[in-house]
Structure formats: C-alpha cells, structure tokens
Design goal:
Number of domains: 1
Number of helices: 6
Distance between the termini: 37 Å
Radius of gyration: 15 Å
Largest sheet: 2 strands, antiparallel
Structural class: mainly alpha
Helix content: 55-70%
Mean pLDDT: 97
Strand content: under 5%
Order of helices and strands: HHHHHEEH
CATH class: Mainly Alpha
Low-confidence stretches: none
C-alpha cells in the first residue's frame, strides 16, 4: 500500500504548492468556461477522500458535514472563501492524509460499504477506495492546472 500513499502524498504536495503560490483572489476566481475554481477543487478532493475512505467504511470523518456538503460532487462555489477557510483547507490537505496513513496502518478500516462511482468503478474495500481516490485527486489536480492558465 505504500505506493498508493506515495502517490497521494505527491498529489497533496502539488496542491499545497499551488495553494501557497496563489492569492486569495486567484484561488476564488472562476475563469470563463469553468464552473468552479482552484480552492473548490482542493476542498472537493478533501471532502471526497473523507467520504470514499471514512464514511463508506462506517467511520467518522475529520471534516464536518457542512464541509462535505459544500464541496461534494455536483456543487459549485456559492461565493468567495475567506483566508481562514483557505488556511483550514491547507491544514486539512496534510492532516487528512497523515491520519489516513496512520489509520490504515493501525488496521482501523475493517468494514466497507460497496459503492459504485459515477465513473462506473465499484469500490469493494478501502484499498479500492484509496486507489480510486488517487485517480480522482489526479483528475482534479489536472483541472486546477488548467484553471491556473486562465488566471
């Protein structure tokens, strides 16, 4: 499983660098032709990881239900996020990753509620969820990189 976590760590580090190298205005800007912005995509990665890995394992998430609702699939930014929210997202990028690694290594993930994603992948266990999550976060990292070109 270490390669799965190596990939996720790399993705999270890329997102962290993007977060740290853009102004609050840039993070909130929705370029023409896009339905969301950089900060929404990063929040969405965190929210989705928590649902795919923790909720579907029947475990509590590290983020609130409000956070999940704000960044879940099918949502879009309802307004600009504050610097405090950016700071929270920045902290969650690292803390959710580290906790997931620790929880996995300690054997916390026992049960899993099978789930078929909108892409048609059926996740049967936490290993599948972690693998799919990397694909998902990689897709959103690509979207973030596209958005950067229009800022």
């Amino acid at each position: 499983m270490s390669s799965v976590f190596d990939v996720q760590k790399t993705i999270r580090e890329i997102l962290l660098k993007i977060l740290d190298s853009h102004s609050l205005e840039q993070l909130n800007k929705i370029p023409n032709g896009f339905s969301n912005n950089i900060i929404w995509n990063i929040g969405h990665c965190i929210s989705s990881q928590q649902v795919l890995v923790y909720k579907l394992s029947g475990l509590p998430t590290m983020v609130s239900e409000d956070f999940i609702a704000k960044y879940k699939k099918g949502t879009k930014p309802e307004g600009d996020v504050s610097q405090a929210e950016v700071d929270e997202i920045r902290e969650l990028l690292l803390s959710t990753f580290e906790k997931t690694v620790n929880d996995y290594e300690s054997g916390l993930f026992v049960d899993y509620h099978e789930y078929t994603t909108s892409m048609g992948f059926t996740l049967k266990n936490v290993q599948g969820a972690l693998e799919f999550n990397n694909y998902h976060e990689g897709t959103h990292t690509g979207i973030v990189m596209c958005i950067k070109r229009f800022l």
